[in-house]
């Protein structure tokens, strides 16, 4: 009797198990799609409202901040370009960020490669010294930096921003690149040395190409904060001809009134170079950001 009941129950359970598989996969796919759509809306939503706000006048911005503009104020971009001196601050930002990122990344690679060899007894203290720079807030060094740059005569020039940015980009570069440099195969470097390559040739032709994913990661992380840095240019680059975009945009914010349409138009213009750079270098960005995970 028991055997008969068990035998009759098995054929009924088989179709239920077979039909649960596709349903489970469908629910999992729908959940992943929903999470991705929410994440996309979370990121793209503020960008959308920023763009439509850049075409509004001040009264329309306060009357309908999240709606579409009734009349598109295209002249906000023309006024932002002239009144905020974007024709000056945008090239300044591009020059300062590009030079600082390149110099900081190359210097950090040299330091990381030298420390990773660990052939000197001061390698670990030097590594700790460089990485400890991440713990120092910029507000704590702004006064000595101000006095030093004034003594060197860099005020009113872009060098007053480039040199601090290079120095402040080194801690992160050394932190990220030293483990990558330590993982490089020493036999490959010894083979290049036996073939007659100089130390500079080994570094430039062997070490740098092998560390390319790490270099891209450091360039991205340092480039983003250098592009958006506000406090240092506000204190040091006080002359209009040496200001960067974050400081120039603040000129629209007043004590009694603020031209929000011009502010958002300036923000859109400052965002475009970063978006274009990301679209042109999407593959390099992704490989650079995932390099640390692979290690």
CA radius of gyration:
27 Å
State the oligomer.
single chain
Biggest beta sheet attributes: none
User: What order do the SSEs take from the amino end to the carboxyl end, as H and E?
Assistant: HHHHHHHHHHHHHHH
- Termini separation (Å)? 62 Å
- The coarse silhouette is flat
- The amount of beta strand, in percent, is under 5%
Our count of helices gives: 15
Give the class from helix and strand content and strand pairing. Answer: mainly alpha
Q: Roughly how much helix do the residues carry, as a percent range?
A: over 70%
Taking all residues together, what is the mean pLDDT?
A: 81
Q: List how many beta strands DSSP finds.
A: 0
**Low-confidence segments, ≥5 residues, pLDDT <50?**
1-9
What's the arrangement of secondary structure elements?
Layout: H1 2-53, H2 58-63, H3 75-83, H4 86-117, H5 123-131, H6 138-152, H7 159-182, H8 186-194, H9 199-210, H10 212-228, H11 231-236, H12 245-249, H13 260-280, H14 282-289, H15 291-294
Helix pairs in contact: 3-13, 4-5, 4-7, 4-10, 7-10, 8-9, 10-14
Task: Tell me what you see in this structure.
The chain has 295 residues and is mainly α. It is built from 15 helices and no strands. The protein has helices spanning 2-53, 58-63, 75-83, 86-117, 123-131, 138-152, 159-182, 186-194, 199-210, 212-228, 231-236, 245-249, 260-280, 282-289, 291-294. It is flat and about 70 Å long. It starts with a helix and ends with a helix.
């Amino acid at each position: 009797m028991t055997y008969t009941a068990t035998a009759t129950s098995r054929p009924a359970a088989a179709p239920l198990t077979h039909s649960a598989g596709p349903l489970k996969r469908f629910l999992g796919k729908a959940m992943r799609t929903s999470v991705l759509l929410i994440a996309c809306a979370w990121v793209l939503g503020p960008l959308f409202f920023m763009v439509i706000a850049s075409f509004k006048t001040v009264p329309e911005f306060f009357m309908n901040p999240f709606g579409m503009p009734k009349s598109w104020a295209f002249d906000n971009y023309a006024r932002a370009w002239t009144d905020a001196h974007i024709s000056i601050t945008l090239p300044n930002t591009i020059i300062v960020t590009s030079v600082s990122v390149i110099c900081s990344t190359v210097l950090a690679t040299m330091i990381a490669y030298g420390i990773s060899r660990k052939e000197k007894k001061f390698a670990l203290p030097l590594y700790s010294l460089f990485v400890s720079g991440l713990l120092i807030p910029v507000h704590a060094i702004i006064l000595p930096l101000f006095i030093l740059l004034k003594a060197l005569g860099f005020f009113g020039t872009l060098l007053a921003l480039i040199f601090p940015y290079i120095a402040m980009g080194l801690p992160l570069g050394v932190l990220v690149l030293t483990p990558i440099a330590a993982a490089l195969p020493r036999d490959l470097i010894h083979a290049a040395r036996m073939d007659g390559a100089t130390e500079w040739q080994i570094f430039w032709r062997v070490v740098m190409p092998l560390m390319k994913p790490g270099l891209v990661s450091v360039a991205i992380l340092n480039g983003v904060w250098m592009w958006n840095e506000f406090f240092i240019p506000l204190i040091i680059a006080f002359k209009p001809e040496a200001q960067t975009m974050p400081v120039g945009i603040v000129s629209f914010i007043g004590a009694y009134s603020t031209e929000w349409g011009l502010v958002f138009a300036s923000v859109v213009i400052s965002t475009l170079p970063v978006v274009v750079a990301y679209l042109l270098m999407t593959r390099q960005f992704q490989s650079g950001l995932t390099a640390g995970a692979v290690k």
